[in-house]
Every structure is written in C-alpha cells, then in structure tokens.
Amino acid sequence: MAPLTQTAETSGIRRWAIASWPLLALACIAIAVPSIGHAAGAPELRIYNWEFFLDPEVAAEFGRRHGVTVRQSYFESDWERDLRLSDGGRAEFDIVMVDAAQVTVYRSRGWIEPIGEGRVPALAHFDPVWRNVSDATATHTLPFAWGTLGIAYRADLIKEAPESWAALFKPVTSLCGKILVGDDPRELIAVALKATGYSANAVDPAAYRQAEQLLQEQRRCVTGYRYTGVAADTDLLTGKAWAAMAYSSDAAWLRARNPNIRFIVPREGGLIWADYLVVLSSSSHKSLAFAFLAFLGEPAIAARMALYNKAATPNARARALLPAGVRQDASIYPSSDAQRASELVGNSPPAVVSARNQIFARIIRPD
Are 106 and 112 a contacting pair, CB within 8 Å? Predict the structure, then answer.
C-alpha cells in the first residue's frame, strides 16, 4: 500500500457544527451503556467511542483481568465528539476514539498523552503505514481500525452495478429519489471533488465551484443527507434508498442483515478513514488506560475486535489470524489499485474550510 499522508494542520475543530448549537446541546449527551467489568466500587475506565466498534465482551475480559469496570459512551459523529470534548467533556473520559485528521488538532491543544512502545509494547505489531499517517498519529495513538468510504447499493434493486461516483451524482432515472449521501461537509465535498477529477484535498477555488455544481445538479435525486445506519429500519434495508455513500464497515454490517447489499470503491477512488485510540491528558487513570491499549494490541484480541466491528485492522499480526474469507474480502481490504486511487482527507486551510461549509449550507438549505 502506498504511504498515507495528511496535509498540515491549519484548521481547528469543525466550526460549522456551532451553527446548530441548540440541537447539538441535546445531541451531545453521550449515550452510555451499563458498566462492564468487576464489582461495584472498582476503578472505572471511561471510553468515548463509536457504537458497535469495541466489542463489549472484549471490554469485559479486560475488566476481569484487571479488576476494573469499563464504561463506554457513544458519539454519533466526529463533530459531536469534538464539540463535547472542547466544551469541558474531557474530564469525563480516559480514552477517546479519534479520526486521523483530528489527532493533530488534539495534540496541538495538549489534550492527549504520548504513546510509545515503552508504554504500549504491542505497538510493534502495527503496520507502520497506519502509525505514520502524521507526526501526531506516530507519537500519540494506538491505531484501531481503518476502511474506505464508497458506495453501498442494493444489487437486487439496481439493474447495473455502480462502478463510478457518477452512479450517485448523475444517476439514471430509476435511481433518482433513491440516493442517500452523507451529512459531513468535509467528506461529501471531498467525494464530489473526486467525482469531478480533483483530489479530495484540493485547494483550487475552481475545483470547489465544479464540485458545488455537481452537488446542485444531484440534489433533486437525493432522498436524504445522512449516512446510512445499521439498524433494521435504515434506508438501504427497507428499500427507501437503493444506493448510498457508506463506510465499508457499515456496509459490512448491512450485508450481514441482507446479502443483496454490496459495497464498492468507485474507479475514481474513494476516501480512506482511519480511527485511533488516544489517552486524554486529563485522565485520572492513565496507567489503566495504557494497560487497556496494550491489551487491545494483543494480536488475538485485535483479531477478535476486527471480526466484531467488521473493519480492517491495522495490526499486521492480527490480520494474519483472521479467516481467509475476511482477509480476501475486497469490501473490507480493498485492492492495491483501489487503495492507490483513494485518499485520506486531511485538515484544510481556513479559506477552504469556509468555502466548503458555505457550499454545504447552500446544498442542504437551499433558498
């Protein structure tokens, strides 16, 4: 796989979320699950995470080994997590799941602790590609999972399988009104840039004008601006949507519910996502947090985690333990060509962030 790089950090936490403050004040209340682990009164390790990402049985096993309680709370988007942590929520957690782009921001703000093989020897098991996405990921994270953003679709409802982003952005008549696209401005516009032949990290204003034109033309065919979920009533399962922008791991969950759901990385390339675990500097249980990361880095544990969350593991030794059918599944581990064509979206200059957010606002809230 070609080395992955990020652009330099020049923007802060996603400020467009502040415009929706009244709604986010409710949305940012973390969804907590019951504590997993040891007896009442035991030390508690608090994790802020995506739902369906960290196997509760694995967390319970760590709790039994160390005589502690593990509590997970869930966020529903990167910006929800960022807003909660920036608004004083760091005191509530020990470990947080962070996307690659924001690791640099968190480190610059002094929010996270350095992590090295001295503290977490299991880091030696991880593919350097994922550790070295940026200086910050190399020094302050445990790589947890990675995957792609592409197109999930219903093979039983679509006559011709999609191969290009044009299937979503310039759909055939039968697909119009059956399309779901994401509600993250950075990712949605990055995909539109890919569809028009530009890099997902383009800074040329002309590229953004073309991307907006494409999104405006597509708008009449979009049934909703939201990511497909994995619940039984999500649009791809019910048939309300026939094709959608989707994360590879979510598509795998959906395929487990309905084998007619397929996932592809379009020929122009998709987006690559990577998530990392970090230890907050405000944590009152840092030793316990590092012990948990070391536990998750054990190859057998990391392999179990990958089977649970249906994402690609950055732990090279763990991948070797996975069933051949999983290792060879191109929707989880894309081909070398698909990886080379795809990009990890980095932080952008402030002018680009502003332009992107304005485009997104015009698309989802037209006059």
Answer: yes
A 10 A CB-CB count for 328 gives 10
Cα angle 15, 71, 116 (rounded to 5 degrees) comes to 70
Q: Inform me whether the pLDDT recorded for 17 exceeds 60.
A: no
Tokens of 314: 């950055």
| Helical pair 350-364 and 205-218, crossing angle rounded to 10 deg | 10
Assign 28 a pLDDT band (cuts: 50, 70, 90). very low
- Burial (CB < 10 A; 0-12, 13-18, 19+), residue 173, is exposed
Start-end of H helices in 17-147: 21-27, 56-66, 78-86, 100-108, 128-131, 135-140
User: Is there a contact between 199 and 191 (Cβ–Cβ < 8 Å)?
Assistant: no
Q: Using alpha carbons, select from 113, 54, 111, 102 the residue that is nearest to residue 79.
A: 102
Would strands 222-225 and 179-181 be described as parallel, antiparallel, or unpaired? parallel
Q: Give residue for tokens 């200059």.
A: 349
- Find out whether 186 and 100 touch, Cβ atoms under 8 Å: no
Q: Which residues contact 172 (CB under 8 A, 6 or more apart)?
A: 160
Mean pLDDT of 338-361: 94
Mean pLDDT (whole number) for 28-40: 45
Domains and CATH numbers, the chain: 15-146+273-332 (3.40.190.10), 147-271+343-364 (3.40.190.10)
Give φ, ψ of 322 to 5 degrees.
-75, 155
Partners of 73 in beta bridges: 32, 48
DSSP 2: P
Q: Which of 227, 277, 267, 218 is nearest to 247 (CA)?
A: 227
Strand partners for 112: 280
> CA nearest 191: which of 248, 245, 259?
245
Tens digits of residue pLDDT in 271-302: 999 999 999 999 999 999 999 999 999 999 99
Where in 92-198 does DSSP place strands (E)? Answer: 95-99, 142-154, 179-181
Unique residue bearing structure tokens 């390339």 = 269
CA-CA distance, 301 to 303, in Å (whole number)?
5
CA distances from 281 to 85, 201, 276, 289 (A): 12, 31, 16, 11
For the CA atoms of 328, 137, 249, 178, the dihedral, rounded to the nearest 10 degrees, stands at: -120
